[in-house]
Amino acid sequence: MSGLEKIADSIKSEAKAKADEIIAEAKAKVKHIEDTAAAVMEKQKRADAEVAEREADKVFEIFASENRQNRKQALLKARSDVIDSAVSEAKSRIENLPPDQYFDLMYKICVKNAQRGEGRLYFARKDYDRLPDGFVERCNKDIKDGSVVLEGATDQIDGGFMIVYGKIEQNCSVDSLFETNKNQIWDAVNKSLNE
Known about the structure:
The chain is of the alpha+beta class. It is built from six helices and four strands. A hairpin with a 2-residue loop joins β3 and β4 (168-173). α1 packs across α6 (182-194) and α2 (99-113) runs parallel beside α4. The N and C termini lie far apart (115 Å). The relative contact order is 0.08.
């Protein structure tokens, strides 16, 4: 082997060794970049999963809150329907009492609501047509500091009566009595629903 060949082989060997070293360094850098990228991706996946879990928890809580609210509203609606039905049933019972019991109730209402002076009684048409004899006299006997006079029938109310004192109308219709005492009625029915 000549000197020139030895120099060429030496240069080739050095070049190959240098190339192998560069390739090894490049492979190490690639491996490091791949490992770093994998770690970053894993970290990002965990972070994304945590964000997704928090968002899912928020969405779940929103749905749970809406569900609780819907249940409360449904319960209130059901209670309201039950109370309205109970009030309607109570009105119907009063309006359909036998005449003697119905007019005993009207008597008590008249005596309780009468004011000083002379009031004019206007009964609902259906009640006026079946008013028992002596009703007004019975009321006047127990009204303190006042009296009532039967004036006639009115179509303004369905059941009960109105007492008029000048420009003041005292509405003693069955509907008005329930409306006036609505809160007490609701409280009583609501209390019975809770027992």
